[in-house]
Amino acid sequence: MNEEQKKAQINKSSTGEKDYSQYFETTYTPPSLKQAKKRGKENIEIHYDFDVPEDMQQIGKDKKFLIRTYGCQMNEHDSENMAGILMRMGFESTAAVEEADVILINTCAIRENAENKVFGEIGHLKALKQENPGLVIGVCGCMSQEESVVNRILQKHQQIDLIFGTHNIHRLPELLKNAIFGKEMVVEVWSKEGDIIENMPRARKGKIKGWVNIMYGCDKFCTYCIVPYTRGKERSRRPEDIIEEVRHLARNGYQEITLLGQNVNAYGKDLADIDYGLGDLMDEIRKIDIPRVRFTTSHPRDFDDHLIEVLAKGGNLVEHIHLPVQSGNNDILKLMARKYTRESYVELANKIKKAIPNASFTTDIIVGFPNETEEQFEDTMTLVKEMEYDSAFTYIYSPRDGTPAAKMEDNVPHEVKKKRLARLNALVNELSAEKNKEYPGKTVEVLVEGESKKDPEVLSGRTRTNRLVNFRAPKSTIGTVIYVKITEAKTWSLNGEVVEPAEVNI
Ligand code: 5AD
Ligand code: SF4
Q1: Residue 437: is it exposed, middle or buried by C-beta count within 10 angstroms (0-12/13-18/19+)?
Q2: Transmembrane ranges (predicted)?
Q3: ∠ Cα 412 417 418 (to 5°)
Q4: Which of 75, 110, 263 to mutate to test the pocket of ligand 2 (most atoms within 8 A of CB)?
Q5: Structural domains of the chain, with CATH
Q6: Would you list which residues are annotated within the binding site for [4Fe-4S] cluster?
Q7: Which atom of ligand 1 sits closest to the CA of residue 226?
Q8: What is the distance between the alpha carbons of residues 468 and 390, in angstroms, rounded to a whole number?
Q9: Which of 52, 312, 327, 454 has its CA 20 to 30 A from that of 401?
């Protein structure tokens, strides 16, 4: 069969469940978003016995790997796990593509432009593969959970050797072995979430700040969002496993941790044997000797009073709340299935402000959701003014196949969406600049992260509320918490000079 005939073979199936067996001399079940939507009652098992089999621990000897990561912190953290597994297989990491023997592209499916970037990169790698046929290229992350993406790769991107899903990371040793030694493209994507694998090796990217996963998946099903399909149902890790990981990071000198989950406020809801939530977890983590604890990302609906009470205790629990609002208009919020109103969101924020007076808020906003009128967009603008966000991640709505919103008519013209985004960003910047103007003369606590981007002689770090601060200080302060008196405010950052702790007043 020639290439054209093979393609025809694929295309002629009308069932949607295409059989690629003749094409790739292998069979596989394509991922299915429909399947991924199902939420069953089956128990999630936790495994503590992960290891790279002995016969696979030398596979990477004298070989190098590179992981390109797109998207959110969850993906960054997954890449740390994959790097850990690859190192356990004997691979070394490299930052140079030409040096790599294995390249993994950890993808993001949240918006179309994220997907386009990935396909751009896959295209570029074709030439590299031609020069170096021994190179193994893998695609993983959220895009690989989408049937349409897998099919597109199968049909058009023969340079890819391996596709695996977000629930298959622990299978990497086996899959990679098959990709290296087999002739066929290896595809393994489970649509249903798997169990929790506790002790995967992990190669963390930094030594100052660390991510700690507290739960996986999302059951919220906001109508625009692909995440509940690509990441499966909500599964919480056991508190004792999380606490042990935080203690381990503290012992190893980490200064800040971020508790991670697609919807961290739902933490514990699925733990059948204990009545335990994010508030309880944070109350225990608060007692661990680590200077800063953050969490992301929250859903306003699950932000309960106990959590607020615990956060108000302060200490290492920083007063920064990322609280995605998405829209300031009730009709749009309803279409998004966010299940709160503008009023209840503001009420929650006020409750938090009352308990934590110096709390700073950041948010996520989508503009141009189906049917969004100019007036409805104005509601978002007035909400942003009312909330005085420190900053906001703002996005143009992007229809995602398989989600309920994708069935709505995407009827806001792209030009209008772009204009709304520009107006919103101008407002967010203005508010951020205004807020920064309050800082000169004040002293803030800063975790020193390293050299600043623009000048290696200048160091930079972040306040408890995540504001960027630049200052001159000895390099020995990197990785410590110091105090900086702010001398100048810019739109996105603050400049200052180091002072003694006694002068702190913020
Ligand atoms: N289009 C645009 N933005 C989206 N987000 C999620 N799905 C979409 C989409 N289809 C945004 C939301 C979410 C953030 C992580 O990404 O604002 O909070
Ligand atoms: Fe997506 Fe909504 Fe879940 Fe966030 S809470 S991951 S926006 S479905």
Answers
A1: exposed
A2: none
A3: 150
A4: 263
A5: 23-188 (3.40.50.12160), 204-438 (3.80.30.20), 442-498 (2.40.50.140)
A6: 72, 108, 142, 218, 222, 225
A7: 7
A8: 12
A9: 327
Question: Rounded to whole angstroms, how far apart are CA atoms 225 and 228?
Answer: 7
* pLDDT tens column, 382-438: 999 999 999 999 999 999 999 999 999 999 999 999 999 999 999 999 999 999 999
Check if the beta carbon of residue 234 is closer than 8 Å to that of residue 263. yes
pLDDT, one tens digit per residue, over 313-364 is: 999 999 999 999 999 999 999 999 999 999 999 999 999 999 999 999 999 9
Concatenating the DSSP letter of every residue in 374-429 gives HHHHHHHHHHHHHHT-SEEEEEE----TTSGGGGS---S-HHHHHHHHHHHHHHHH
Query: Rounded to whole angstroms, how far apart are CA atoms 30 and 51?
Result: 27
CA atoms within 13 A on the CB side of 202: 19
User: Residue 334: CB partners within 8 Å, gap ≥ 6?
Assistant: none
CA atoms of 315 and 337, how far apart (whole Å): 35
Expressed in percent and rounded to 5, the helix, strand and coil fractions of the chain are 40, 20, 40
The residue type found at 221 is F
Q: Tokens representing 129?
A: 């593969």
Neighbours of 133 (CB within 10 A): 7
CA dist 385 and 356 (Å) reads: 20
Ligand nearest to the CA of 401: 1
Compute the half-sphere exposure of residue 51: CA atoms within 13 Å on the CB side of its CA: 5
pTM of the model: 0.91
Query: Tokens representing 133?
Result: 């046929």
CA of 143 to the centre of ligand 1 (A): 15
